[in-house]
Design a protein that fits this description.
Blueprint: H1 9-16, E1 22-27, E2 32-39, E3 42-50, H2 51-59, H3 64-78, E4 85-90, E5 93-103, E6 109-119, H4 143-154, E7 162-170, H5 172-179, H6 181-199, E8 203-209, E9 212-217, H7 223-240, E10 251-259, H8 266-282, E11 287-290, H9 293-296, E12 300-302, E13 308-310, H10 318-331, H11 337-347, E14 352-357, E15 362-366, E16 371-374, H12 385-388, E17 396-399, H13 404-409, H14 411-419, E18 424-431, E19 436-444, H15 453-472
Parallel strand pairs: 10-11
Antiparallel strand pairs: 1-2, 1-6, 2-3, 4-5, 5-6, 7-9, 7-10, 8-9, 12-13, 14-15, 14-19, 15-16, 17-18, 18-19
Helix pairs in contact: 2-3, 5-6, 6-7, 10-11, 10-15
Length: 479
């Protein structure tokens, strides 16, 4: 095979496109870096030296985000990354970098590139053309337009808090398979009407593929305002198709994250929103989940450059946790109490697990900070008519959020939960068939939508596992 020919600088810039934009050349053999412009036959050099020295000069008066962007750019040059296009914001400009690389026989290389610079627009200048950017079937933007809008929006200097919401219909594939694609299209048209009505002037909506839809908010800076919109969408879709497809329920799941509160890049916010959608599906569908660091940070790990990224392998699925607990905690005894409670608490987003026996005389407590037996005041969880009246036939007492109704009906309980800053709780009654031996409380400090049926089942099973270990003291675990 013929070896690649080392092209001349003139050929390189013909390849890139001649313009009055900045050009650069990097030679790996001596870390040589030059930046210049070409006008006709005239070349004006802006910088000549090493890439290392240029990087020091460039970042000397930059903020952390600019430093990170420049570091990525310089690393790509030094590492000889194959021809690439790179876009970043620096010093109130958007820099679009295009390059091509040519390798020498001795494994050194030369990178030729061009930089096109454009001013950062104001938030109010970011517009879309609803005619040319519209989805061919639905009354919303197409994928290219909605993603381009978000990227340009996040690059503005004055971009306010903006939520990205990832939307997906539950069981839509089965609707297509059973009732046909014509029915599926009719569903999508009606669903788009429901979404557009709920969003109104508070955002833009775009279709990113099939039944996957993206919402980008405007003038929504807090979770409560967003919840009102998402709740309206969820309930209206559920009501619209209740009973229309037999036993097959057509509902929706949504995940959301906010820029710049939860991250400072388009790709990161998208990952967060997509992960929250995944969790909504995992927790039983027909719900929305808005990213909350206190509740969902266990789903994030650090990448090599220090940025937090979503990692789908961090969390067990719920069945996996139960299997893990049975195998490693009970049968094999490989996992001690502290590790077992940490796994359950972390993966279910809990702020506290409390096991109480003998009418509040003895207990075992887990929080992210501490695990162990507790002899504190546990009398607020006891067998009395007020507390027991909250349990159903499955031995569950579910508090999705502390409403006024709960406070009126269970004043002592709610008072203690508020004191502990708990917003939602699940109590499971430990009953040996003859009498109530105790209770397990799973609690969250973050206001959430609803405990799912999957959570109730999984946490009940895990509660029984904890009960076996703690109450009967089968083995001595190293706490």
């Amino acid at each position: 095979m013929e070896k690649d020919r080392i092209i001349t600088e003139e050929e390189a810039f013909i390849y890139l496109g001649i313009s009055n934009n900045l050009k650069f050349k990097y030679e790996s053999v001596n870390d040589s870096f030059i930046v210049f412009t070409v006008s006709g036959k005239e070349t004006e050099y802006i910088y000549k030296g090493t890439l290392s020295d240029w990087q020091k000069i460039a970042v000397s008066d930059s903020d952390e985000k600019n430093k990170a962007n420049l570091a990525v750019f310089c690393d790509r040059l030094r590492n000889g990354i194959e021809s690439f296009a790179y876009r970043f914001v620096y010093s109130d400009y958007i820099w679009n970098v295009y390059s091509t690389i040519h390798r020498n026989e001795d494994n050194t290389f030369v990178v030729y590139g061009e930089v096109k610079r454009e001013s950062v627009k104001s938030f109010n200048e970011i517009q879309v053309n609803r005619d040319s950017d519209k989805d061919p079937m639905l009354d919303m933007l197409n994928k290219r337009a909605i993603i381009d809008y978000i990227k340009r929006l996040f690059e503005t200097k004055d971009c306010p808090v903006t939520y990205i919401v990832m939307f997906d219909l539950d069981h839509f594939k089965m609707i297509n398979d059973i009732y046909g694609h014509m029915t599926g299209d009719e569903v999508l048209v009606r669903v788009s009407e429901i979404i557009n009505k709920a969003v109104g002037n508070n955002g833009l909506v775009g279709r990113v593929g099939g039944d996957e839809i993206m919402i980008v908010t405007k003038n929504i800076s807090d979770k409560e305002s967003l919840r009102l919109i998402l709740k309206e969408i969820r309930m209206n879709i559920e009501n619209e198709y209740a009973g229309k497809f037999g036993n097959l329920s057509l509902t929706c799941s949504m995940g959301a994250a906010a820029y710049p509160i939860h991250g400072d890049s388009y790709s990161f916010i998208m990952q967060l929103a997509d992960k929250m959608l995944y969790l909504a599906k995992e927790k039983g569908r027909n719900r929305y989940i808005i990213y909350t660091p206190e509740m969902h940070s266990q789903f994030l790990v650090s990448s090599s450059n220090g940025e937090k990224i979503t990692d789908f392998t961090v969390s067990f699925d719920m069945i996996g946790i139960v299997q893990y607990m049975l195998d490693n905690y009970i049968v094999k005894g490989k996992t001690n109490n502290e590790e077992a409670f940490r796994i359950v608490g972390g993966n279910f987003g809990l702020s506290e697990i409390l096991i109480v026996y003998d009418d509040g005389k003895v207990g075992f407590k887990w929080t992210p900070e501490k695990t162990g037996y507790t002899m504190g005041d546990l009398s607020w969880i006891k067998v009395d008519k007020e507390f027991l009246s909250g349990f159903d036939n499955n031995n569950h007492f579910v508090i999705d959020w502390l409403s006024d109704d709960y406070e009126k009906k269970y004043p002592n309980l709610v008072s203690k939960l508020k004191e502990k800053d708990i917003q939602s709780a699940l109590f499971y009654k430990l009953d040996d068939g003859n009498k109530t031996r105790g209770f397990i409380m799973y609690a969250r400090k973050v206001l959430r939508q609803k405990w799912s049926e999957y959570e109730l089942l999984a946490l009940t099973t895990i509660g029984k596992i904890f009960d076996i270990s703690i109450y009967n003291n089968i083995k001595k675990y190293d706490i």
